[in-house]
Amino acid sequence: MSHGARVIRTGVSSAGAAAPPSVAASSSAGSDAELVDGAYFRSCSGMLKISLLVGFISVNNSQWTDYSAYSYFQIVTMCDLVMILFFYIIHIFRIYRTLTCVSWPLAEFLHYLIGTILLLIASIVAASKSYNLTGLVAGATFGFLATILCVLSIWSSYKVSCITQSTNAAV
Q1: Which string of DSSP letters, residue by residue, matches 115-126?
Q2: CA 102/CA 115 separation, integer angstroms
Q3: 170 to each of 6, 138, 156, 158, 165, how far by Cα in Å?
Q4: Residue 88: alpha-carbon gap to chain centroid
Q5: What is the DSSP string of 45-114?
Q6: Which of 10, 41, 155, 159 has a CA-to-CA distance to 165 between 20 and 30 Å?
Q7: Is the distance from CB of 129 to CB of 66 less than 8 angstroms?
Q8: What is the pLDDT of residues 40-55, one digit of tens each?
């Protein structure tokens, strides 16, 4: 029995659900040699990026009735999308392994928390000002879908950071 530091591989990150143990064990050997992590494309975060982009495009290509409400929605969705793409690049190229001075789970958790609150407000405002215009209703709908996916990302980010911290504290 050694009391040294342990590394716990959860298989869950901001990428979404965990892979089955047999898949995680077989893919972990070749994962360091690959430049691009293909599983990240099919994750909750990948769907979040698509829903934010579709919501932005829907609102951008619609006839606007209230300029301030929809410009706020566009600003929130684009800022959220840019920050999510930043974390996407960090994960896909595994930059988090070299930049260990940053607590990436905490940074991602705070980003998703603030982004979710702003996205929920923007989606409520967009839904209340849509006046049955189909593009605006679609934009608000994808905004609410992105809000739900952000909540799932918060949960998975919090779960990983708490598991890691509580395990290190017990050692």
Answers
A1: HHHHHHHHHHHH
A2: 19
A3: 10, 48, 21, 18, 9
A4: 8
A5: HHHHHHHHHHHHHHHHTSPPS-HHHHHHHHHHHHHHHHHHHHHHHHHHTTGGGT-TTS-HHHHHHHHHHH
A6: 41
A7: yes
A8: 667 776 777 778 888 8
Return the structure tokens found at 50.
Answer: 């698509």
Q: Are 150 and 115 in contact (CB under 8 A)?
A: yes
Q: Shortest CA distance to 151 belongs to which of 105, 120, 126?
A: 120
CA–CA dist 114, 37 (Å, integer): 26
What tens digit of pLDDT does each residue of 77-98 get? 889 889 888 987 888 888 888 9
Query: How far apart are alpha carbons 140 and 133 in whole angstroms?
Result: 11
Indicate the pTM of the whole model: 0.65
Nearest 5°: CA angle at 129, between 115 and 68?
65
Q: How many residues does the chain have?
A: 171
- Residue 13 pairs with which residues in a beta bridge? 16
Q: For the chain, what is the radius of gyration of the CA atoms? A: 19
Provide the token pair at 122: 């923007």
Q: If you search the block for the tokens 């779960």, which residue do you land on?
A: 159
